Amino acid sequence: MTVPQETQRQTGAAPARQTYDDYPERGAGWLLFAGTMLCLVGTLNMIEGIAAIDNAHFFHRNTNYIAGDLNAWGWTTLILGVAAILVGLGVFARNQFARWLGVVAASLPSSG
After folding, report:
1. What pLDDT is stored for residue 98 in this prediction?
2. Percent of the chain's residues with pLDDT above 90
3. How many CB atoms lie within 10 A of CB 95?
4. By CB distance 3.0 to 4.6 Å, which of 18, 80, 84, 95 could disulfide with 90?
5. Does 11 reside within a domain?
6. Distance CA 89, CA 81 (A)
């Protein structure tokens, strides 16, 4: 903890040394960015998954899927969206496993 300069002048105390604890964690801004992006992408995936499950009108009709149908892909997208939000919250909590899971999630190709 540092002593204000006015107090130092009045008391004649030597200036306090700053310690490592006085500085913010290195990379805290990047963790905030990564957690925010994971939560944002997870939310958008949840919305898209719910829309696909509900057969919303912005999906193409009569589309042939290689595996499953629109409903199956909707559930898959919804589950991946929930997982991305949980990983994003884990990044906010500074969980090391969530950080690595976020790196893996960011390296996967996107569906959009």
Report:
1. 92
2. 33
3. 14
4. 95
5. no
6. 12
Per-residue H/E/C for the chain: CCCCHHHHHHHCCCCCCCCHHHCCCCCHHHHHHHHHHHHHHHHHHHHHHHHHHCCCCCCCCCCCCCCCCHHHHHHHHHHHHHHHHHHHHHHHCCCHHHHHHHHHHHHCCCCC
> Token digits for 30?
């990047």
Residue with tokens 């958008």: 44
Map tokens 């990564």 to a residue.
Answer: 34
Q: How many domains does the chain have?
A: 1
CA distance 86 to 64: 32
CA distance 81 to 40: 9
pLDDT of residue 5 exceeding 60: no
Its domain, for residue 101, covers 26-107
Place of tokens 């569906």: 111
Of the candidate ranges 20-29, 45-54, 62-71, the one whose mean pLDDT is the lowest: 20-29
